[in-house]
Design goal:
Strand content: 25-35%
Largest sheet: 10 strands, mixed
Number of helices: 11
Helix content: 10-25%
Shape: elongated
Oligomer: single chain
Amino acid sequence: MSKKSAIGFLNLCKPSGPTSHDMVDLIRKTYGFKKVGHCGTLDPMATGVLPLAIGQATKLTRFLSNEKSYRGTIRLGIQTSTDDIKGKIVGGDLKLASQIKLSDISEIIHKFEGYIDQTPPNFSALKINGKKMYEIARKNEESADILKENQIKTRKAKINSILIEKFFSSNISNIPEDKFNEINEKKTQNIEEINNLLLSTNRNEILTEIITKIDCDGGTYIRSIARDIGSLLKCGGTLSSLLRLRSSSFLLDSDKLVDANELNKYTFDDIIVNKLIPPEDALGNLPKIWIDNVNLNKEFRFGRPLEVKLVGKKSEFRQGDLVIAMKKEKKFGNITTIVDSDNNNNDKENFIIEMLGIATVLDITNKRIKIKPYIIL
């Protein structure tokens, strides 16, 4: 497989700092792939799973399943302009946060499960009048009027589960009242500057934090959840760290994971042979059909409807469903021939197994299935 013909997905582990697009550029330049695209943005601060589509797989990103999993740390007592610790402090109450108990959090956490309405952070990639919100928000005094005038619309988000993994309660009862007054007067400062005001106190003792595990659908803003939890607790909240554990079928705990900080470990051949995930494996949420005739293979390439042998149960397919169209060729020296898909196995030394594209199911009988090409690779 050459740099030009490479197709598949990389399960990249993104470090904190770079943007998702930075990661696309890094992989493109490091390995010389012509086409690279990411499958779901991670904020610069966030770390963890960032799937990348390589080559013709960039056509397939919208067919990946929508499930995401995160581990997020929410810092209570602080509210910021960006809803994470990279922003300016605009509110919050550290003293009240220090009085929050685990039972208080448990009482409100269930309100964030199921379908919820979310207001996106001001610093997000959503657009108002053709401009991204974070570009507007960076203009400071001008941004408030524009964002208020357009009244950022709430969006539906689906939270499948949210669990409290750990809770750290602060111990700041010994901090003088004048210290809190000084903090309240410094709300436009950075978080680190606020913490430095508490010189006589161990920094860890002033933090009230919750570590949560969140399973959700794509499009969910974890920063908004952090902000809204802080709001319900009346002390303010912001996201202090975020780790993506899963995106679609890509997992942090996987032998296919590629650490972006350790690319020097992987040659181009290492990536192709050991790390590149075939598109049909990444799209495991879609059923497969096998094209076992040379002429039908050509028909698919030309985008024409065709009938193929039904392998599997009829109940696995429905009219209108999307399916993965596969071909399998047996090698005979330098000659290949398409074989019957009933002999389906993954012996790649003897067979060439290739995804042809995505198809729509037109009709099904007990023995045949009619499909129409939808995406041709």
